[in-house]
Design brief:
This protein is an alpha+beta fold. The chain has 9 helices and 8 strands.
Length: about 270
């Protein structure tokens, strides 16, 4: 039977060696040992990793993937299908709820931008009548309220939480704490995502918060930050993102489990 060292398996599968070790500790991947103590893997490990990767892309939690791998090992396709279908259906419901919130948020931003562009340039100081944050009740702009604003009045800070929708908020809000500290991106994809984040948060003021970091940025970066955060959670679900709109400022809070602290610092920097 062909056997591979961990570096060979990483090259064949495209999964970093650090992630392979994590999968082994989590019980998703098994390895034999040479007399010298080196890990060795059989050819079946490549197929197993492909299956795990596909399950991760569906947004399944680590515990669910472990259960699904056990069904997959039994070899009956119908059993895998029966086990997988309700899991995908649940994720679809969550994704649709999140997409609706993000769509409403996008519409609110577009409405605010259109309103801002329509305002006359005034030589005097800015006051509440300028209506820069118009869009809530009483503003007369007719734009939709921002998600989670509860119909907030003009000028009131608004929170946007990039976690699953309201229907599942109670059971899902803290899922990031139990998510595997591993990223499905590697190589060029990881390098590109890192570059995008560093560009997006350039010049941010950083403040420590429990389990993470708060970055304060100009509010005009909100759409870009929201797009990156949504993409990041698909590949690195151990990150938790919360966006808080406060007048001309955007506060981005990023949290991660203790094991992911170093990755958070590498991507977003540290508090000054």
């Amino acid at each position: 039977m062909t056997s591979m060292r961990i570096s060979q398996l990483a090259e064949r599968s495209g999964v970093p060696a650090t992630t392979l070790r994590f999968y082994e500790s989590a019980g998703l991947l098994s390895a034999d040992r040479t007399p010298a103590g080196y890990r060795v893997y059989g050819e079946d490990a490549v197929d197993r990793l492909a299956f795990i990767g596909a399950a991760k892309h569906l947004g399944l939690a680590l515990e669910e993937i472990g259960e699904l791998v056990g069904v997959w090992e039994a070899g009956a396709c119908r059993d895998v299908k029966a086990d997988l279908r309700p899991r995908i259906a649940a994720r679809l419901t969550e994704a649709e709820a999140r997409a609706a919130e993000l769509a409403a948020f996008t519409a609110s931003l577009r409405g605010a931008l259109a309103h801002l562009d329509a305002l006359p340039d005034r030589a005097g100081r800015c006051d509440p009548e300028c209506g820069f944050l118009a869009g809530g009740p009483g503003s007369g702009s007719g734009s939709a309220p921002t998600p989670n604003s509860g119909g907030a009045r003009r000028g009131q800070p608004v929170d946007i939480v990039l976690t699953p929708g309201r229907r599942v908020a109670e059971q899902e809000a803290e899922r990031w704490r139990d998510a595997p500290v591993a990223c499905s991106l590697s190589g060029e994809g990881l390098h590109e995502r890192t570059a995008h984040w560093r560009e997006a948060v350039d010049g941010a003021t950083r403040t420590a918060v429990p389990d993470g970091l708060r970055l304060t940025l100009p509010v005009d970066r909100t759409a870009r930050i929201a797009e990156l955060a949504a993409a990041e959670q698909r590949c690195c679900p151990f990150f938790d993102f919360r966006l808080h709109l406060d007048g001309p400022r955007l506060h981005l809070e990023v949290r991660a489990p203790a094991d992911g602290g170093a990755l958070l610092t590498d991507l977003f920097g540290s508090a000054h």
